[in-house]
Amino acid sequence: MLANVSNEISLPRNMTLTTQSTTTQRPQEAYPKAQSNDNAKTATLQPRAPVHMPVSKLFTIHGRTAICTGVTGGIGIELCVALAEAGADIVSIQLPRDPAGPRLQKMITGLGRSFKSFECDIADSSSLRACFIDIWAAGVQPAILLNAAGVNQRGAMEDLTDDDIDKVFAINLKASFVTCQEFAKKDVQCVGIRIF
């Protein structure tokens, strides 16, 4: 005996299903497909308006501290704010006299979270390691590490200088590695650590 087959399908909450008749003629294709019924219906997905939900409804990290790099601009600032919305206190490693630093601090403290900043040029490994010594000396007990720092050298690849390439690797690769390394030296025994 055959089971009853339903024409309903499950879709993500942000999608709706509409159908339309395909009676229009298609242009001749270079590699013709199998014959189809011109009166058949095709289904197309139409996006619904996105559902906006506070980060705190998705997950909570209330009372934990996040050490963050690259969070004074770009996607980093959005990630940092999301961590604060979920309850994390923020420790920002940023460039000396970064003009976006006070704005970030205002955003984080406006969410009721604490904010500390430590200045260093993360492209310089010795400066970054010294920064972590200062962070540990300040009594920071992190549970989260967010590596959001990154640079992009615009222009044609063949026009990039050795200095351009060195800067990209120093920030995008080496600084992330050194940051993880210094973080792990302090917290390798902790449970529930998150590194992004």
UniProtKB/TrEMBL annotation:
The keyword Oxidoreductase applies. Residues 16-25 have a biased composition (Low complexity). The keyword Oxidoreductase applies. InterPro entries: DHB_DH, NAD(P)-bd_dom_sf, SDR_fam. Keywords: Oxidoreductase. Gene3D superfamilies: NAD(P)-binding Rossmann-like Domain. It comes from the Eukaryota. GO terms for molecular function: 2,3-dihydro-2,3-dihydroxybenzoate dehydrogenase activity; oxidoreductase activity, acting on the CH-OH group of donors, NAD or NADP as acceptor. Residues 9-40 are annotated as: Disordered. GO terms for biological process: siderophore biosynthetic process. Belongs to the short-chain dehydrogenases/reductases (SDR) family. PANTHER family: 3-OXOACYL-[ACYL-CARRIER-PROTEIN] REDUCTASE FABG (PTHR42760:SF115), SHORT-CHAIN DEHYDROGENASES/REDUCTASES FAMILY MEMBER (PTHR42760). This is Uncharacterized protein. It comes from Fusarium oxysporum.
